[in-house]
What we know:
Blueprint: E1 5-11, H1 16-19, E2 44-47, H2 51-60, E3 65-68, H3 85-88, H4 92-99, H5 112-124, E4 131-136, H6 138-149, E5 162-168, H7 171-175, E6 182-187
Parallel strand pairs: 1-4, 2-3, 2-4
Antiparallel strand pairs: 1-5, 5-6
Amino acid sequence: MDRAFILHLIRHAPTSGNGLKQYIGWTDEAVLPFSATGRPDVQNVWGSDLLRCRQTAETLFPNADYHADSGFRECHFGEWEKRTYDELNRDQRYRDWIDNPIDLAPPGGESLADVMSRVDRAVQTLPKGNEFYIVAHGGPIRYLLAKASGQNFRQQTALHGHCYTLVWQNRKAYEEGARCTSCSVEPLMANANG
């Protein structure tokens, strides 16, 4: 009998760059102090290899082995790393990218199509099993939420310190691109701000 396939997607705790509304993709920032009730029962966690995800996992899952995978990284924003909308909004290349992030990439960075392919490969390489905790970034989580619901990427929200649980009938249903059968969200951090 097939068991449900469950992904628990947790967005890392906020960083100083997040607070400044900067594009923080592959910049390796630490998280700001946060409080959360840990889950000592979870033994394995997967996620981005970047510091902010590893630090978040250490607090939330203190007894877990962390399996870092660069496939779960945020979009590489290239020349726009650590810049803000206000700094970029007069640049036509930026405005074009905002209108079509799937096909266009920031100078020296990645398109959303690149991110989607990378995240798909990361999920496909998860070991055998039916339930996974993944600490990642807003972009990859929004992509997986869109894929699971059949909605547009722009319609999705992934708040810092929240866990989005997606359930499919089985792993094969996920792999074949079926919509999830259940989606729920819960805040994990006392002082996480969106």
